[in-house]
Design a protein that fits this description.
This protein is α/β, with parallel strands linked by helices. It contains 9 helices and 6 strands. It has 3 domains: 90 residues; 42 residues; 114 residues, Alpha-Beta Plaits (2-Layer Sandwich). It has a 6-stranded mixed β-sheet with strand order 2-1-5-3-4-6. The protein is elongated.
Length: 292
Amino acid sequence: MIDLNEIKSQIEPHKVTKPIQLLACWLVGLILVNGSFLTSAVMIKQPDWIINVLVVASVINVPIFLICIFLLQTRFRPEMQEDQFYSQYIDKKFGNSKREVTPDAIESIRKVTSNNYDTLIQMIEELEKNQNEISTQLNKFNKEENLDFMFNGELLKSKIINVVKPEKPKIFFENKTVSLNAKLNIFNELARAFKANRIPVHEIFGREEPLNFLISFGDGFSTEEIITILNSVQSISDGYIAYAHDEYELDQYKNKVLIGSYGEGNDLTITQFLSIVSNKTLEVDVYRLLGK
């Protein structure tokens, strides 16, 4: 029978420093475990099932231990080496070992470097050439610009010296009276249109809404003033225009326009009048056109 105490006395744990020694310990452990199981099975009488369990466990332990030992010797064999050999294995595995550079490799690297250097020199020379061309073009352009600036400057100076003093712009509706009929249904719209076009409204009149929308001009209005008033009115509504004949006294409506006057027109609408006046090929007497 195996003397367990004798085996234990032969194992000194502090001396187990190599993986192969650990493997031997596994084998010793297998012998100890199975030996203890079988010894217990012989000594125990009751119950019977404990004896069967110990015997079965002893049988199963053998293949389990053998499989583990097989894996250690195959799959994990590098790890079972001593420290010195295992460190060499790690160096080779992770590429920490030095590589030898052959003379052919050095010559190949030298040729590639030389070719790249020559290419770089050519590129630098081309850049310098392009830079010189650009500088030449810029200098030429600057000279032309300076000459052109001097020429244009003298021309501008001569224009400023010889410029004619502009005429004083005409003042529309100076000494004129614009009268607006308050009974018109478009009174508010007309008032806003006149205000937007800077046409002053001087008088408000009206006793009732006229049958037709009529605008009557007295003497004294320029063509520009008449067109300005009619354009403002046309933006709101079309209507008829006429000449304002005197009724009670001489020059009763001179320099006066009646927007929404009472009376009869000459069937000439605002649109027709503006179309005729805007025709540059015709010389139009606006007051004759109004029916004076």
